[in-house]
């Protein structure tokens, strides 16, 4: 009995080298896809995890517009049957006593006292020690900088001494500086027992806010709003919104882009291999059919071959993909300032990749399988004169041109047409480029170089597809490079224009006139303004709860916080930052629902504005709205411009000296720019790394194609050897073919990349608009990587070509 | 000019050792036209491959003038092939991506000798083999006879001392075969190039000065045009 699996396996592995290269392509394609999907899930989970541990199991919290309030004011709420659990919290800023020359500018620390350190409304990622013992809980960053470990004593100036009992990993509760330099801008945070802190500070019964967990419906929000109306307290639901703390949406798009590119390239390699195999065996298929095989039997035979290939590739690729994802996520999260721990979320992504791995080779091999299915029974008996395919070619090129024309439409999907247009036109492009490159290649490699150029004409489509893959990869590298370069340059400008002066100071509590004057009287302060801000929860068009900072118009127009809206903000209206607007999902003129102290209220969205505040995930209302609806009178945030002759860093130190425990953050505009720049640089490195992997995958395609070309032309190679080519000349000929495919890919890739940048620069849609910036660094990198990898890719086929046994090769013809 | 000195050649197929040539001794003079005949598997094509330096003997020596192929490395064998030997194959072995003219010029290019002088040589040989007007065509578009003419022109363009032809008329009808053989005979006479032709066809062998009959890996008989039994020998074949 004929074992169809065994036959398929033999057919698949008959040409071992080709099988090996195709298998590598399948493995790399699936591995990258798995890695990107796992990385995507893991990064999303990690950001969400940190939001969730910050929220604990709380569903709402009551805050004050003042620095603190008496716990008695919320006693009646705490006693309600619906309240399942509560956590009272007091924040107090002080200075820590550390060894060395560190003074007030670097040593402010916010001590958070909590009523129950074991509460389920508080989740702490403990990494050392324990939560018991009533000691101090410090973050890992602070432990390293202060040189304090479990059991060590920490002294807070003017408050008291306490032993460290627990060290925790990153959490928003205790987010602390990573370096002493950073400590000048923001204070350290630590946690301890509420009673002790109240006793130390003399703020008996005083708290800053209370977190609550309820049973049943959320009607209590309305009830509390009524109850707290007219007081300095207000209630907000707890919303888990990781967008507030990170701006990595673009990164997720890159993950998907890399996956799609990897699958696309891998798919082309599989297509080339199966197509060549089917064409070579057409005679065999017709003989099989003449002996009783049905069309379906032949189809099944090829199907089994592809299935075996995808099965083996997928089984090897999945664990490799998960392993690579671990490395990649580690590298990626290393970009961020805070050390984040993560758990690899690999299950669902691996299942999805496994399904893709098994299915996509079968899909891309559809055409060759159909050709096998349709092979006529008389194929083996007749002399196969190739039919003229001129009409097909003409239609192909016309379609290609039309598709490229469609790319001028200002739509996302137009880029898909552009890619297909490039692929359709590529055979003619590669022939033209081969002709143009001919003299150069001949000069470089001599007569074998000229033959390389001629050889491109054989299997033009295969060579064109391979080169097109490289071109598309390079095009994407260049486009992403431009996108990344345009963001920081745009960002720097945007930060300067919308930061609100040179320095922003956030105080721990509303400041009074005398404090305001202390700041104003500094010689270095040229002028000064303020704005008010509060955290509010709001709803997207789909009803999803979100949270962002709502800010008032600045007190002076000389300190703009946004651009793109010149008029005064009308009452009852809000301006949304770009990211908030996109997340909201509505149109200008529609209403967005926000929770105010007076209950949920609809605000008309008057416009979408550009702002660097909170990365654009922010809203702006008028000062009147802030005072009346939010009943917010105190000033906590100051903005100032520094005198030209003064150094902003000196002023920062002076202000820290003036308000050693009063300032929670003190940010210079250059710190903000530097921080954004370093994030973008990190992202750029990650993307370049990914793109080099994609170009490497393309070069495996080149190797595979050259190997197939070599093996198919083994007879001709034998002839050239017989009539006078040395092994060196044969090697040069094969390397030359690799160079033509590679250099054509690089040229088209660079043109394609610049063309896409141009299309984005003329786009009227803000989602796709990008300034026309040519990323010369990325172009250089893509050219170098493309050239180097093309040469490396040609080495193995050229080695195979020179090992040809002359006598056997001559028999091939 | 060519001496084959006690040449043995065997191939290994798994555990089996197949002896193809079992001690062949042969000498071919400059300008001699030799036909090698014999049944399939007798070793005649293997001998031709050894004479062309495409393969090396398992033992013994094949010498072209003073050079023994056995003593030369791959590169030096290629240089000898490139300068002193021309090949004509049964299935022409033309390079499909090159035009007629480019195929003919290949040996000159491979040797870095494509100059003005080379251009004239190419034109002249194209005329001699009767391929005028077909220079820019792809060899795939030519008839079998025309393709073999391209192969002959390519085998002669670099003026080799020896021309090795493996069944040059094997794929041609009688008329075209005759034309090709006439051409070979003409070049042999005019250029004084040694021609060694492997053939199954006694009609083709009739153009040679010497016929060598192979049998079971050894030379069974050698007969020259000057020998008295030459005509008898041909007749016995025809019979």
Provide a descriptive summary of the structure in words.
The complex is a heterodimer of chains A (813) and B (239). Chain A has 813 residues and is of the alpha+beta class. Chain A has 25 helices and 22 strands. In chain A, strands 1, 3, 4, 5, 6, 7, 8, 9, 11 and 12 form a ten-stranded mixed sheet that branches. A six-stranded mixed β-barrel of chain A has the order 15-16-20-17-19-18. Chain A is elongated and about 100 Å long. Chain B is α/β, with parallel strands linked by helices. Chain B has one domain (2-238): P-loop containing nucleotide triphosphate hydrolases (Rossmann fold), CATH 3.40.50. In chain B, the strands form two sheets. A six-stranded mixed sheet of chain B has the order 6-7-8-3-9-10, sandwiched between helices. In chain B, strands 2-1-4-5 form a four-stranded antiparallel sheet. The longest helix of chain B has 18 residues, at 174-191. Chain B is globular. The interface between A and B is medium-sized, with 26 and 31 residues.
Helix content of chain B: 25-40%
Mean pLDDT of chain B: 88
Number of strands of chain A: 22
How do the SSEs of chain B run, as a string of H and E? EEEHEEHEHHHEHEHEEH
Radius of gyration computed on alpha carbons of chain A: 33 Å
Count the domains of chain B.
Answer: 1
Tell me the number of strands of chain B: 10
> Which residue ranges of chain B are poorly predicted, with pLDDT under 50 across at least 5 consecutive positions?
none
Proper CATH architecture of chain B: 3-Layer(aba) Sandwich
Roughly how much helix do the residues of chain A carry, as a percent range?
40-55%
Structural class of chain B: alpha/beta
- The 3D shape of chain B can be described as globular
